UniProtKB/TrEMBL annotation:
Keywords: Kinase, Transferase. The lineage of its organism: Eukaryota, Metazoa, Chordata, Craniata, Vertebrata. This is Sedoheptulokinase. One of its GO terms (molecular function) is kinase activity.
Amino acid sequence: MATRVVTLGIDLGTTSVKAALVEAVPRDPSGFVVLASCARATRAEAAAQSAAAGHQGQEQDVSRIIQALN
């Protein structure tokens, strides 16, 4: 039985959470095939709470990112 090589990529960002499952396929021109992918908005941007960030500083609301994963 042939071994399948699959990779899960996850991007936890300020504006969205993205995931992709790809399989290595040497015969494909790109070398891989996307088996599944998903993206969800996080709306995690929040005004900076620290004075060091200045008036244009931005922070992330981690709880919103975690909610997007559920």
